[in-house]
Task: inverse folding
């Protein structure tokens, strides 16, 4: 068989081929590029050739040749001292190069661990004692300047006495830890405080060789970047001390119920022992723990003497172990305090211009206006009333609600009752605008008439009225306008009405307010102008969105203020007509530094004379209905509030520059927000439940 050999292609003609083909032919091949690089490298190394020739004999000697010539037996397989030295130097060089490279390539993370930076927010009563805390962790950062020197050195003596002189890592400790990890199968300590701080805020708690190495590299860089004091401050504020606490400030409070600035050396040494492991050294967790804690406490105090941070004479005074508290005294929110925290946190964010994200990072100390004793008295009284209602009116009691609030004349919210348990009823009854004010609204109508006068003709000048101005107090008389009777949109003439359809004849406005006679105030509201009534109520503290429709019923309390706002409105009269918006936070700090807070300023709602006239009428009302209590508390003033359909019962009044408002109502929250008839739940007019709660809150019982 004959094979057909293909004819080779003709070479391209001179000057033929495309531009791309010419570029490809001009481009050097891979082999040509390699040869060029080799030539350039040889040119660079050419000056070193004489030295290489001189070192070659020594290098050949270091090269292991096995079996070694000139040796017999087992010696043929043992490297010479030159080979050992060469291997050692090579290893050291490679290790040094590796460490330098690792150091250069290691960066300090730009973001701290979220868990390491998150703190809790702490709320305080008006007297400065802790009330509650919120947040996932118990941590409060403290500036180093606020941590006593003795406390710092107790920690340094326990953990890293050479802290201020070491480079941020302990080679001896790292070597020991690596040996135990590799040789014995577990990791060990040996970290400096800088390394521990790095672990707390940048890394995780995994006990691995990789994490340990990364920790050391970051610690070296951090030690060059930050001052020792900055590192120590960070360490003291992020370390775990047990009992759910992070940081020395929280530890001091959890174990000794005091701030870190008030710790003595002995207590500081006990807290420092916890850094070795709170599960092993918290003395309250068992006898073995107690024994270990005492031994380490002694050792730390002795170490402080050795490093000259405690004199032998001072050490001799600490012979008794400072027993910590049996349990963590830090307060958790729960039940009634949840409502207080809710009010305070909302106000803090709004007035401190803090976003939810900023606030949730924690670290804030919120100093509230809540009076601990008043809150206890109010809560106790409502709890007792609830229990009594379940016995006397079991059917109605399951839907019963009690809202109450005490507000000082300068706007401070002193106490509230928000509900039985925030975990089962999230909304705050003291801040809920759900039921009408009823006749508790009459003082605002009275103030509007006294402040603005009345108009007998449409568009005519205002005619002043006084507490002695006389109105018709009869029941079922028509409400009048300058043009005649008032007709509603359905064409029905509106008539006034009194409780029990009782008629009083001609009566002064002061007498009408003292006796809670409705009909004069329905007419007074029309004469003064319902817009003036609305304006006066809002200026006194009621929110515009809770003011009822601008119809004659406005004067009889179709508005739905909360207990806080009703108390605030009555507080305006106690403050001689000067209104200050109610507030629940008087001061905020974050880690000891003040946070700017917009504190409300007083504004003029009604004149001093009008406010005093209203207070005097309310005093008459209180004396007439409760003469026994009035005899011992002549400065008390207040009145009851009822609604025509018996869906709400109020009592609001003032004493000693404090105003309290209480409302009792029924509402089935599973069905609707429509109020239900009280059916006797609020007691009788002579001895009402709101009044009993009011006297307890005011300290008059």
Result:
């Amino acid at each position: 068989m004959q094979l057909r050999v293909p004819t080779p292609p003709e070479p391209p003609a001179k000057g033929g081929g495309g531009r791309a083909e010419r570029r490809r032919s001009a481009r050097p091949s891979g082999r040509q590029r390699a040869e060029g690089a080799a030539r350039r490298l040889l040119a660079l190394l050419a000056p070193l050739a004489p030295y290489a020739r001189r070192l070659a004999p020594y290098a050949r000697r270091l090269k292991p040749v096995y079996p070694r010539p000139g040796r017999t037996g087992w010696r043929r397989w043992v490297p010479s001292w030159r080979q050992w030295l060469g291997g050692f130097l090579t290893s050291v060089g490679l290790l040094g190069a590796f460490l330098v490279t690792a150091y250069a390539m290691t960066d300090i993370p730009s973001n701290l661990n979220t868990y390491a930076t998150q703190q809790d927010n702490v709320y305080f009563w008006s007297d400065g004692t802790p009330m509650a805390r919120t947040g996932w962790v118990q941590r409060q950062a403290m500036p180093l300047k606020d941590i006593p020197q003795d406390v710092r050195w107790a920690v340094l003596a326990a953990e890293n006495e050479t802290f201020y002189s070491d480079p941020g890592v302990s080679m001896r400790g790292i070597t020991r830890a690596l040996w135990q990890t590799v040789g014995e199968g577990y990791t060990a300590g040996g970290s400096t405080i800088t390394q521990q701080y790095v672990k707390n805020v940048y890394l995780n708690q995994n006990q691995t060789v990789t994490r340990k190495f990364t920790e050391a590299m970051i610690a070296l860089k951090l030690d060059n970047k930050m001052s020792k004091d900055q590192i120590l401050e960070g360490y003291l504020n992020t370390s775990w001390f047990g009992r759910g606490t992070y940081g020395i400030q929280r530890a001091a409070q959890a174990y000794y119920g005091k701030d870190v600035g008030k710790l003595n050396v002995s207590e500081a040494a006990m807290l420092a022992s916890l850094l070795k492991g709170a599960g092993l050294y918290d003395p309250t967790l068992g006898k073995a723990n107690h024994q270990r804690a005492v031994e380490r406490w002694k050792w730390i105090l002795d170490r402080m003497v050795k490093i000259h941070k405690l004199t032998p004479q001072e050490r001799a005074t600490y012979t008794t172990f400072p027993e910590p508290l049996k349990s963590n005294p830090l307060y958790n929110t729960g039940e009634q305090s949840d409502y207080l925290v809710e009010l305070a946190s909302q106000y803090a964010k709004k007035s401190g211009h803090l976003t939810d994200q900023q606030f949730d990072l924690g670290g804030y100390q919120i100093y509230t206006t809540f009076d601990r004793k008043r809150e206890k008295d109010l809560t106790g009284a409502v709890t007792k009333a609830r229990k009594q209602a379940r016995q006397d009116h079991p059917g109605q009691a399951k839907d019963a609600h009690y809202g109450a609030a005490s507000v000082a004349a300068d706007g401070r919210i002193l106490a509230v009752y928000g509900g039985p348990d925030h975990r089962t009823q999230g909304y705050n009854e003291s801040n809920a605008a759900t039921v009408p004010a009823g006749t508790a609204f009459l003082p605002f109508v009275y103030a509007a008439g006294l402040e603005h006068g009345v108009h007998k003709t449409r568009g005519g000048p205002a005619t002043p009225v006084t507490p002695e101005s006389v109105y018709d107090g009869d029941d079922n008389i028509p409400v009048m306008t300058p043009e005649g009777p008032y007709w509603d949109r359905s064409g029905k003439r509106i008539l006034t009405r009194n409780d029990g359809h009782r008629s009083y004849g001609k009566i002064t406005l002061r007498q009408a307010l003292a006796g809670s006679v409705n009909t004069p105030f329905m007419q007074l509201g029309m004469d003064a102008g319902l817009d003036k009534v609305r304006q006066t109520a809002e200026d006194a503290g009621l929110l515009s969105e809770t003011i009822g429709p601008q119809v004659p019923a406005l004067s009889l309390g179709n508005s739905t203020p909360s207990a806080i706002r009703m108390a605030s409105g009555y507080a305006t009269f106690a403050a001689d007509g000067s209104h200050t918006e109610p507030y629940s936070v008087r001061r905020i700090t974050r880690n000891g530094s003040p946070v700017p807070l917009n504190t409300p300023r007083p504004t003029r709602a009604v004149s001093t004379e009008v406010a005093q006239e209203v207070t005097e009428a309310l005093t008459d009302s209180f004396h007439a209905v409760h003469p026994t209590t009035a005899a011992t508390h002549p400065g008390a003033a207040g009145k009851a509030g009822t609604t025509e359909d018996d869906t709400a019962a109020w009592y609001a009044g003032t004493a000693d520059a404090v105003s309290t408002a209480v409302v009792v109502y029924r509402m089935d929250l599973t069905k609707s927000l429509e109020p239900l008839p009280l059916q006797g739940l609020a007691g009788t007019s002579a001895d009402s439940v709101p009044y009993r709660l009011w006297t307890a809150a005011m300290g008059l019982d």
User: Anything to note?
Assistant: The first helix runs from residue 19 to 26. Residues 1-17, 181-189 have pLDDT under 50 and may be disordered. The two ends are 130 Å apart (CA to CA).
